[in-house]
Design goal:
Pseudouridine synthase, 3 domains, nine-stranded mixed β-sheet, alpha+beta, 6 helices, Structural Genomics Hypothetical 15.5 Kd Protein In mrcA-pckA Intergenic Region, Chain A
Length: 303
């Protein structure tokens, strides 16, 4: 590790691609991260990953020393749906944060995975997110996959980026949706005044598409299945709130004082499907609705 100076001998090749060919021990994902963190200079200037190198360009790359993991393994019970040498699929429970963050370094899924998997987790996402390919919110339940090595992580990340992973959710939303099906195509970005929230943002938002199908109607509430075509932060919660049907229990994008004691939004990641990173075989995993969700639905049926 340290600072390296390299001279390009080709023209019109992306900077991140060229560097990954020169530095075989580093993944392209990690190299892109270094570029984003301004640790790569081209002729003394900052450039983006898509910059096309030219012959005789001087590329300087500063590779930091690897950090030792400071996140401790914790013997926290987790519901493992499937596991092999490359991946571990978990049915996350309500109230569990996926990975540590400032002020919250214990009790997360990462802490539990470190205990269960030991050193067998990818390190692409750094010290506090080993193995984490994607995440679901603290109070959202259901299926997610973690990578046990960098090969699996890069493969699954590429699939996510190309929208080649099946993700279906179940949500109870407020209001009676008249249409049986619908497609919400609205860009999502940071809220213009509240940086902790996301919002439909037509100026600076990123492309976001959610499909929904009505499962059942309960007068003032509707049970829907939702399929993510893209995967933006809080996508389902933002989209459903924007069209007037916020997720029940969502105090950020819906009612501040929910009618039901749900301890957060009634949103469940029911189905996750993808091609296995080693075999290429399509696999699909499903998690039943949690008990609290079923009990609320049963009470609505009796009204």
């Amino acid at each position: 590790m340290g600072k390296y100076e390299l001279y390009a001998e080709v023209d019109q090749v992306r900077l991140d691609v060229w560097l990954s060919e020169q530095l075989k021990d580093l993944s392209r994902t990690y190299i892109k991260k270094l570029i984003d963190e301004q640790k790569v200079l081209v002729n003394g200037k900052l450039e983006k990953s898509k910059y096309k190198v030219s012959k005789s360009d001087l590329i300087t790359i500063d590779i930091p020393e690897p950090e030792l993991l400071q996140i401790n393994p914790e013997n926290i019970p987790i519901d493992i749906v499937y596991e092999d040498i490359d991946i571990v699929v978990v049915n996350k429970q309500k109230g569990m944060v996926v990975h540590p963050a400032v002020g919250n370094y214990t009790g997360t899924l990462v802490n539990a995975l470190l205990y269960h998997c030991g050193d067998s987790l990818s390190d692409i996402n750094g010290v506090i997110r080993p193995g984490i390919v994607h995440r679901i919110d603290k109070d959202t339940t259901g299926i997610l996959v973690a990578a046990k090595n960098n090969m699996a992580h890069e493969y699954l990340s590429a699939k996510l980026k190309r929208h080649d992973i099946t993700r279906r959710y179940i949500a109870l939303v407020e209001g009676n949706i008249n249409e049986d099906t619908g497609r919400i195509d609205m860009p999502i970005g940071r809220h213009p005044t509240d940086r902790k929230r996301m919002a439909v943002n037509t100026n600076r938002g990123r492309h976001a598409v959610t499909h929904f199908n009505v499962i059942s109607r309960f007068g003032k509430y509707t049970l829907v299945q939702l399929a993510l075509q893209t995967g933006r932060t809080h996508q389902i919660r933002v989209h459903m709130s924007h069209i007037g049907y916020p997720v029940v229990g969502d105090t950020v994008y819906g009612r501040k004082n929910p009618v039901f004691d749900t301890q957060g939004q009634m949103l469940h990641a029911m189905v996750l499907g993808f091609e296995h990173p080693r075999t290429g075989q399509y696999m699909e995993f499903m998690a039943e609705l949690p008990l609290y969700f079923k009990e609320i639905l049963d009470n609505l049926k009796d009204i």
